[in-house]
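ingest -> validate -> predict -> emit
validate: passed (alphabet ok, no gaps, 83 aa)
predict: started
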Amino acid sequence: MTTPGTTSLEWSPYSSRGTRPRIKEFVTHGDVEYEQCIEGGSYLIRRTKWNDNGQSTVMETGRGMARIRVLGLWKLIVSGDAS
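emit:
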């Protein structure tokens, strides 16, 4: 569910590229944690959502985009203008 006035981002299931991601920044909004990462030379944003049973769903967006574009998405997420 998207809050009115926010941008809804496209999320895909997270797919590890076999390297350990470096987490540059993170922010939490309610039961969702967002992480700005670099993994295997790619910039991406991971989103982990926790359900009532303590299980998580991990998604990603931004992989393959230019760094500046991912940083722009990150600013929207941190400000609460995107989810």
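The chain has one helix and five strands.
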